Amino acid sequence: MLKLLFVLIWLITESNSSAPIISIRDGKIKGEIYITSNTKSYYGFRGIPYARPPVGNLRFESPQMPEPWEGTLNAQNDSKSCITSFYIFNENKESEDCLYVNVYTPTIQENAKLPVMFWIYGGDFITGNSSKNYYGPDFLIEKDVVLVTFNYRLGPFGFIATGDAILPGNYGLKDQNLALQWVRENIAYFGGDPNKVTIFGQSAGSASVSFHLLSKKSSGLFRAAIMESGSALDMWAINRDPKSYALKLASDAGYDGSNVTTEVKEFLKRKSVSDIVEVTDWIKLNWPVKEVEHADAFIQDLNYELFKNGNFNRVPTIIGMCSQESLAFLLQPIVAMLEALIYDNTQELLLPIDFASKKNNTNEIIKEIKSIYLQENDTFSQNLTSYAQFITDTFFTRGILKQAELQSWFNPVYLYQFSYEGRTTLKGFIKGAGHSAELPFLFKMSNIAWNDTDTQNVLIQDQMVRMWTNFAKYLDPTPVKSELFSNITWTRFNPLFYNYLNIDSTLRMGFFLRQPAFGKWKRIFEEYALQPYNTF
Ligand SMILES: *[C@@H]1O[C@H](CO)[C@@H](O)[C@H](O)[C@H]1NC(C)=O
Ligand SMILES: *[C@@H]1O[C@H](CO)[C@@H](O)[C@H](O)[C@H]1NC(C)=O
Ligand SMILES: *[C@@H]1O[C@H](CO)[C@@H](O)[C@H](O)[C@H]1NC(C)=O
Ligand SMILES: *[C@@H]1O[C@H](CO)[C@@H](O)[C@H](O)[C@H]1NC(C)=O
Ligand SMILES: *[C@@H]1O[C@H](CO)[C@@H](O)[C@H](O)[C@H]1NC(C)=O
Ligand SMILES: *[C@@H]1O[C@H](CO)[C@@H](O)[C@H](O)[C@H]1NC(C)=O
Ligand SMILES: *[C@@H]1O[C@H](CO)[C@@H](O)[C@H](O)[C@H]1NC(C)=O
Ligand SMILES: *[C@@H]1O[C@H](CO)[C@@H](O)[C@H](O)[C@H]1NC(C)=O
Is the pTM of the predicted complex or chain greater than 0.90? Predict the structure, then answer.
C-alpha cells in the first residue's frame, strides 16, 4: 500500500516536472505542464512559429510558410508581441518577429479530436498580444477544449496600404488566416479536431472574425464563429483612405521622391522599426482595407453587400455586445461632457461615416438622428446617458445587430447582450457593462483582481464558459436544459423578434434588443441613404 502511494506520488511529481515533447509538421517542440486552480493539469506549447519572421524583405508582405527546424524547439515561453505604439518603451518585449502561436490542451493524444477554439485578440488593430498572463486558458481548458492563441501584425506593419497590389494591406488579417491554416495542419498533434474549429474574438478581434466570415481565403478553415463586440459592419473597422495615410507616413519618415508605390515601399522597408513607430499616426492609419483584385487579396468587396447577398462563409455564429460599450471610453463625466460638446457643436458628426444621402437634406437627417436620443432642445452635453447610448450604438450596436440580422437569413445566429456590472467591470458614472467587461469571465486575466469567493462572478463565469464551449462542441450554446442555465434555452436569433440572451446576475431571454433606437436607424438608412452600403 505504502509502495503504491510512493509510486503515485512519483508519478504525479514526475509528470508535473517532465516537459512534454511532441512532433508537429515542422519539427519537434517541448512544452510544459500547467495546473488550473481546480487542479486540472494541461499542456501548454507556446511560441511556435506559424510563419517566417516578417522582417527585412518580408515586411509589408503576405506571411510566408515557416521553415522546418532541426532538433527540439523550446515552446515554453510567450513569443515577443507584435510592434505597437509602446515599442519605444518596450523594445525587449516587442518585435517584428512576432508571428507565433500558442496551444493549450488537456491531452496530447493524437486521436482525441477535441474541439478547438481559436482566439483573436482585440486592440483596435494597433495593440494586443496573446500573452498567457492576459488570455489565460484555465477556464476554457477545464471544459475539455483545445485553446489556440497567436499574434498578428498590428499598426502600419499589419495594415499599411496604398490601394494597389503593391502595398495591398491587410497583412495582419492574412497572418490570422495563415495561423488558421497552421491549425488545420497541426492541431491533431495536440489532440484537437481540425474539423471542429471555432474562431472567436473581441473588439477588433471580433471584427476580424467577421472578416474571416467574409473572405473566401478563410473558407473551410472553421465551422463556427463567436463575435464579441465588433463587426466588419462597424464603421471603425475599415480604412477608407489608406493611400494618403501611407504617403504621409513615408513623407514623415523622410521620403521625398515621386510617390510611386514601389519606391515608397522600398523606402519604408529599409527604415528601422523605431523610425516607423515614431512617425506613425497610431489612431488613423491602421485598419483593414478593401483590396484591389489580385491573387493575394483577402477582402475586395463591400462588407455589407457580401453579408446581404449571402456571399460569406455560412457557419453558426454567436454575436453580441456589452450593454453600454461606450463606458470603457467615457470614464469621467468631464471627459464625456467635453466630447459630447463636440457632437453638439458639429452635428455632421452624428451621420454615419459612409452615409451618402439620396437628397441634399443633411439637416433633416441630423434632426431625425438627434430625436432618437434627445428631447427637442436637449443636448448631449446635458444628457450624458443619451450621449453614451449614441456612442455605443454608433460604434458597436448598429453594425453588430445589422450583421446578426443579415447573417440570420443564411445560417443560425445566437445573439447576446452582456449586462453584468460585476466588480470586474470598468464602472462608469452611467449604468451598464462597458467594452471588454465579459473578457475576465472567459479568460484568467492576471491584470484583473478575480474574486474566487464571489459566487456571482463564479456562476457567470461558469455559465459563459459552458455556453461558449458548448457552442464549440455542439454548435448550440444550450443543447440541453440545465440548472446551470436556470433551464433557459438560448433560442436562435429571429430577425422579426431580435431575441437575445441577456447575461446578467440571472440569465434571461429578451426580445427587441436595442429597440426602438435600432429600428429608427434602419428607417433612416432606408429612407435617406444611397445604396450600396459598406458599413452600417
Ligand atoms: C521560459 O519558461 C521557462 C519554464 O517556465 C522558465 O524557466 C524560463 O525562465 C522562461 N524563460 C524566459 C526567457 O522567460
Ligand atoms: C500584452 O498586453 C497586455 C494587455 O494589453 C499588456 O499589459 C502587456 O504589457 C502586453 N505584453 C507584452 C509582452 O507586450
Ligand atoms: C507625396 O506625398 C506627400 C504626402 O502626401 C506629399 O506631401 C508630397 O508632396 C507628395 N510628393 C509628390 C511628388 O507628389
Ligand atoms: C445643398 O444645399 C446647400 C444649402 O441649401 C447648398 O449650399 C449646397 O450647394 C447644396 N448642395 C448640393 C450638392 O446640392
Ligand atoms: C435624456 O434623454 C432621454 C431620452 O430623450 C430622456 O428620457 C431622459 O429623461 C433625459 N435625461 C435627462 C437627465 O435629461
Ligand atoms: C425649443 O426651443 C424653441 C425655441 O426656443 C421653442 O419655441 C420650443 O417651444 C422649444 N421646445 C420645447 C419642447 O421646449
Ligand atoms: C470577494 O467576494 C466576497 C463575496 O462577495 C466578499 O465578501 C469579499 O469581500 C470579496 N473580496 C475582495 C478581496 O473583494
Ligand atoms: C429546472 O427544471 C427542473 C426539472 O424540471 C426543476 O426541478 C427545477 O426547479 C428547474 N430550475 C429552475 C431554476 O427553473
Answer: yes
